[in-house]
Amino acid sequence: xxxxxxxxxxxxxxxxxxxxxxxxxxxxxxxxxxxxxxxxxxxxxxxxxxxxxxxxxxxxxxxxxxxxxxxxxxxxxxxxxxxxxxxxxxxxxxxxxxxxxxxxxxxxxxxxxxxxxxxxxxxxxxxxxxxxxxxxxxxxxxxxxxxxxxxxxxxxxxxxxxxxxxxxxxxxxxxxxxxxxxxxxxxxxxxxxxxxxxxxxxxxxxxxxxxxxxxxxxxxxxxxxxxxxxxxxxxxxxxxxxxxxxxxxxxxxxxxxxxxxxxxxxxxxxxxxxxxxxxxxxxxxxxxxxxxxxxxxxxxxxxxxxxxxxxxxxxxxxxxxxxxxxxxxxxxxxxxxxxxxxxxxxxxxxxxxxxxxxxxxxxxxxxxxxxxxxxx
Length: 376
Hints:
By secondary structure, the chain is α+β, with helices and mostly antiparallel strands. Helices cover about 60% and strands about 15% of the residues.
């Protein structure tokens, strides 16, 4: 690296670390004030609060805000360099606009690599401890907001519930079907079912069964109550969407396959989470380019105007990301497409902003990448 690269990279990474540390401290202070009553009520030890919760909470915070504060860091230190005419001096000294982007892209690559590592390796493991702590001391562990629940619990075995109460472990309007070669061989219908935590089976009330034998003969029975092991337990009806945050890439793929087999309504949500773990870090490069394009030219208003416009662009990107993923979770577009659409659109915007800021009419993508390609 040249002296210029080290100078800009030091400013880039230093400003990023300072900004992300400051916002992390502020968020932690507010989080403590919000949860202090729960900590005192459950008599949680200081060691557990620090090492089980906040030590595992910090990587989640850093990764969550890394693209935004990468952008803020770029705008802040670049606009200060512009105000002191350092950018003009660098360009006047024979450094091309493309070459000036090299340390910026190096810094973005370092932060994006860290984000990828956190997303796929560190955070899922850290979240296991963090979420377990929150479940124990902060919030209710499980909930179920679904009605008309359909699940395939085993190949060829389907169940239906109108709704399920996770507090009382009570299901209403239950049905179970066993299908063989697209023909129903057994059907159980019941007004209510309730989990017996002592016997670890289900109590079935006001039931009706129909069994179809190979010859076509039917055996029909009914009754007021019976106990039966139905091949599933209450945890199958307890939705806990935060569990996905504690799964690494392999576990998440296996869970998605299982949810798809069961016919879960939340498969799109889990797929969005999987693709977002890779797509979100790449936003670092795009926001770095946009931040540099905004702040590399002197304007009236200086750093304040740069930061104001920059934050507007950054928040529009985040809102666009949330809207596109919402469409995916609703089943309107593919989760993969929805996650990468913001990167694609703002990537094009970044390219034209850099082209405009450079003042070079022949600025192209190949030219932009040329400084990063080693000459033979």
